[in-house]
Design a protein that fits this description.
SinI_DNA-bd, HTH_17, MerR-type_HTH_dom, globular, BldC family transcriptional regulator, 3 helices
């Protein structure tokens, strides 16, 4: 499920997990620890900016990276 927010696509934890080949719970832990930033939906679900996910996937530093 890809959600459009302005021009930025938002990915679900499951979609991010499949890109990194990890469990969705791992993606949730990354978000909780600040390794990747997330957006909360009104229902409390996490969504991730596709551009940031792609940058991490390619080993590029992002603004939220410590």
């Amino acid at each position: 499920m890809k959600v459009e927010r302005g021009s930025e696509r938002l990915l679900t934890p499951g979609e991010v997990a499949s890109l990194f080949r990890v469990d969705p719970k791992t993606v949730t832990r990354w978000a909780a620890s600040g390794r990747i930033s997330s957006i909360r939906t009104p229902g409390g679900h996490r969504r991730f900016r596709e551009s940031e996910v792609r940058a991490l996937l390619h080993g590029e530093a992002t603004e939220s990276a410590p």
